[in-house]
Design brief:
178 residues, Rna Polymerase Sigma Factor, Chain: A, mainly alpha, 2 domains, 0% strand
Length: 178
């Protein structure tokens, strides 16, 4: 049976032999040195938690795949954050005022409203605001007129405004009652 010191030595060897390669793989994908370091460190932290020498499963290919998957998760999350930022900007242009301190609550409210929208209206809103497609592109996708797309957008925005107005009124009442 191997001791704790043998386990530590085996893991240290795995770390030293693979860290640089994994870091550069991550850097190639995410284009941010700090994020690349964090990704590789997270992968090695998880590997250490599960590591049992001599029965470890952590070969170079496995670690590379873990780094790749973590990088993709990071990029997906960054894309979602970017989409929400764009969405907030677009909504403010359409008359919805945002308090950035309450962003998480707004996201939850938007998601609730979006879930209640008719399927086609939700699709149009997703395409126009999250995916960044033009009305013309969405009209071509759905084989409807541009004015049909505009009607769906106006309906979605109206429901969002109403929901935010109700939420704002409820917050004012709650604050008054404190």
């Amino acid at each position: 049976m191997m001791g704790v010191r043998d386990r530590e030595c085996a893991f240290e060897k795995l770390f030293k032999e693979n860290y640089s390669q994994l870091y550069y793989n991550a850097l190639y994908i995410v284009h941010d040195s700090e994020v690349a370091r964090d990704v590789v460190n997270d992968v090695f932290t998880r590997a250490w938690e599960d590591f049992s020498y001599p029965h470890h499963r952590y070969g170079v290919a496995y670690l590379r795949q873990c780094v790749y998957n973590r990088c993709l998760d990071y990029l997906k999350h960054a894309k979602v954050e970017s989409a929400y930022a764009k969405f907030f900007l677009d909504m403010s242009r359409h008359g919805i005022d945002w308090n950035m301190d309450e962003q998480e609550e707004y996201i939850e409210l938007i998601n609730r409203v979006m879930e209640k929208l008719p399927v086609r209206t939700r699709f149009v809103m997703d395409q126009c605001f999250y995916e960044g497609h033009t009305y013309k592109e969405v009209a071509a996708l759905l084989d409807i007129s541009i004015s049909g797309v505009k009607q769906h957008v106006m309906k979605g925005l109206r429901l969002l405004r109403e929901s935010f107005s109700i939420e704002y009124a409820n917050r004012k009442i709650t604050k008054k009652n404190r």
